[in-house]
Amino acid sequence: MTPPALGQEIYSRGFRFCPTPQEAVTHYLPRLISGETLRDVVRPVIHHADVYACDPAELARRFQPMPRTDDRFFFAPYKNKAVRAASCPSSWAAHNTAEIKDDEGVQVGELKKLRYKKCGVLTDWLMDMYSSSCGDNDQQQQFMFCKVYVSPRAASSSDARHESAAFFALPPLPPATPAAIIAQSAAKMTAPPLPQAAMPP
């Protein structure tokens, strides 16, 4: 019998990875922070990168999107830090924030919606950023789970749409700088391995 497909293959067959805000902050984020091994079907689709240190176009080139939706999921350091260049400062601009509550109405985290601004112009790149407010561990406040995607309202000619498709259109890039990639386990952040770019299928 052929073993079931895992990772990207299984999602190409109709399965979806679409965690709710509550699942993002109470299930995935704590496990990612502690370094706990995730299920085989989930592990390949949650990338580890510093999304604030990279232009989303660079993330799109390095990390494969989800089939059907083109969403990309990341475990990343939590910091409001712009990606800056001398000639063209860029940053993620927040435009909406909402509390995430559990089934009993207790706040367990925060959902922040952001849009990428490049050279002073808003682009069609969006990010949903999930942060936890559970527990006393400082690490809970230092990391986030996020989804980076192109606005559903973006025109077919949008630069963001073309950038999002770059993973399949361009040859593999050399490994990213260590500052752009974070270690698999937050507990081992002091000595991360050298990063490697994702490889197209």
TrEMBL record:
<dbReference type="GO" id="GO:0006355">
    <property type="term" value="P:regulation of DNA-templated transcription"/>
</dbReference>
<dbReference type="InterPro" id="IPR003441">
    <property type="entry name" value="NAC-dom"/>
</dbReference>
<feature type="domain" description="NAC">
    <location>
        <begin position="11"/>
        <end position="151"/>
    </location>
</feature>
<keyword id="KW-0804">Transcription</keyword>
<keyword id="KW-0238">DNA-binding</keyword>
<protein>
    <recommendedName>
        <fullName>NAC domain-containing protein</fullName>
    </recommendedName>
</protein>
<keyword id="KW-0539">Nucleus</keyword>
<dbReference type="GO" id="GO:0003677">
    <property type="term" value="F:DNA binding"/>
</dbReference>
<dbReference type="Pfam" id="PF02365">
    <property type="entry name" value="NAM"/>
</dbReference>
<dbReference type="InterPro" id="IPR036093">
    <property type="entry name" value="NAC_dom_sf"/>
</dbReference>
<keyword id="KW-0805">Transcription regulation</keyword>
